[in-house]
Amino acid sequence: MKDKKPSNSLDLEQFAARAEELLALCERLQQENARLRTQYNRLLNERGTLMERNETSRQRIEAMVTRLKTMEIEL
User: What are the average pLDDT values for consecutive 10-residue runs of the chain, which has 75 residues?
Assistant: First the structure.
């Protein structure tokens, strides 16, 4: 007798193994996607904070320049 399994049985086992691999890949990709979304949101918040700081700095510098010009005119 032969130890070989029928072709259909082997095909089914290969299909099942491939399906398991694909499921594992999907799970890894979902986890990575969630991690990347979290990182993206964190970076968006950080960008907003930096833009606010930049605007505040710009306004302060403009105010200083205006005061210096006023002082220059008074002298």
Answer: 66 94 98 98 98 98 95 83
Alpha-carbon span 75 to 64, nearest angstrom = 16
Whole-angstrom CA distances from 30 to 18, 23, 35 are: 18, 11, 9
Separation between Cα atoms, residue 35 and residue 26, nearest integer Å: 14
Residue ranges of the alpha helices (H) in the chain? Answer: 7-74
Q: Which two tokens stand for residue 28?
A: 């890894």
How far apart are alpha carbons 18 and 40 in whole angstroms?
A: 32
2 alpha carbon, distance to own chain's centre: 55
Chain-centroid distance of CA 27 in Å reads: 17
pTM: 0.66
Amino acid, res. 53: R
Structure tokens at 45: 């918040």
Token pair listed for 25: 């890949």
